[in-house]
Structure formats: C-alpha cells, structure tokens
Specification:
Layout (H helix, E strand, L loop, with lengths): L2 H18 L3 H13 L1 H23 L2 H5 L3 H27 L2 H11 L3 H14 L2 H14 L6 H25 L3 H31 L3
Helix pairs in contact: 1-8, 1-9, 2-3, 2-9, 2-10, 3-7, 3-8, 3-9, 5-10
Length: about 210
C-alpha cells in the first residue's frame, strides 16, 4: 500500500473513532432525536458538522496551530466551552424533573423555530470546544508530511467531511426511529438525567483541564 494512502486511512479511522465515540455532541444529538424527532436532530447535526469542518480547514491551513502558542486564547475557549456544557447540563436536569405534560407542551411550542436554534447550538458546541481544535491539529499532522500537496489536504478534509455527515446525521436518523422514540417516552427522566450528569462532567472536566 502506498505510504500516502496508508496515512489517509489512519487519519480517517482516527476521525471515525474521535467523532463517533460518545461525547457531548453525540449525546446531544441522540437526546434531541428521541425527544424532538429527526428533523430537529438533523439541524443540530448540521451545526456540529459545520463546526467540525471549520476546525478542519483551520488546522489544515495552519491557522489553528497558532492558537496552541497562545494560552490565553485557548483558556477563553476552554472557559466558554465548559460553561456552555454546564448550561446544557442544567437544561437537561430541569427537563428530567418536569412533567410529561409540560414537556409535550414545550416541544409543541418549539417546533416552529427548532431548525435555526438547534443548528446554532450544534455549531457553538463544536466551535467552543478547544479539544476539537487540538484533535484536528493531531489528525492533520498525522496525515500531512512536509511536502504534502494541496490535493492531499483536500482529500483529507473531503473524506472527514463525508465521515462527519455520515456519523452525526446517522446518529440523528437512528435515534429518531420508532423504537428509539418509544424508548425515550418510557425512560425520558432517566435519559435526560444521564445527559445532565454527562454534560456536567464534561463541562467541569473541561474547565479544570490543562493544555
């Protein structure tokens, strides 16, 4: 196997593991898919995908690598991202304590503006996570040698973009199916409570982490 093809495969496999493993973005997509349906989850996924592609382009062009030299910039992103995850934890916790009637009424009132709001939330979630920046820098470093051509960069980004759409939209479609929606209806409080704990843990860990 040619060396450049081997590097590409390593990058794509690493991206699948990083993007597909459970985390704030995937958990949020699953929760929205089960609670509000496929269209809402796809809107959230589109925001996450946009944020991922943005950091990929930044890493590939070397711009985000500059951020690693400025601790203050990463600290601001870390604080913003951690607080946003804690906000999601509080929101999920409140949802776990609310009655089914109130949840149904709130969901019905939100459907008119779900798409834009959820796209923005997905985008903010990914843009405010400094670990996404560092992960992309690592991926690009693996895949690009000192003499890498522009089409190698384009191949890496194009492949990861396709994988990003497949993974995040796949979560949205899978968890909006009938069995998953019925599961959510039966176990809503437990699911939202679990999401609250996971978001709180991720947010606190991000705020207390060092880079």
């Amino acid at each position: 196997m040619p060396e450049h093809v081997h590097h590409l495969l390593i990058v794509w496999v690493a991206y699948i593991i990083a993007a597909g493993s459970p985390g704030p973005s995937t958990m949020r997509i699953m929760g929205v898919a089960m609670r509000q349906g496929r269209q809402a989850a796809l809107s959230l996924s589109a925001g996450v995908v946009t944020g991922s592609i943005f950091w990929g382009v930044m890493a590939a062009t070397g711009i985000s690598a500059l951020l690693t030299q400025y601790a203050q910039a990463l600290t601001i992103l870390k604080i913003f991202g951690g607080l946003y995850l804690i906000y999601l934890a509080i929101k999920a916790g409140k949802s776990a304590m609310e009655s089914d009637h109130k949840i149904a009424a709130d969901a019905g009132g939100d459907r008119g503006q779900t798409g834009r709001e959820l796209y923005r939330r997905g985008l903010l979630m990914h843009l405010s996570n400094p670990k996404s920046i560092l992960a992309w820098i690592a991926l690009v470093t693996i895949g690009l040698g000192p003499n890498a051509s522009w089409h190698t960069v384009a191949t890496i980004l194009g492949g990861c973009a396709i994988l990003s759409v497949s993974i995040f939209c796949g979560y949205a479609i899978l968890f909006s199916t009938g069995p998953m929606v019925r599961l959510y209806a039966k176990a809503r409080r437990g699911i939202e409570g679990t999401l609250s704990v996971l978001f709180a843990y991720a947010g606190c860990r991000l705020l207390l982490s060092r880079f």
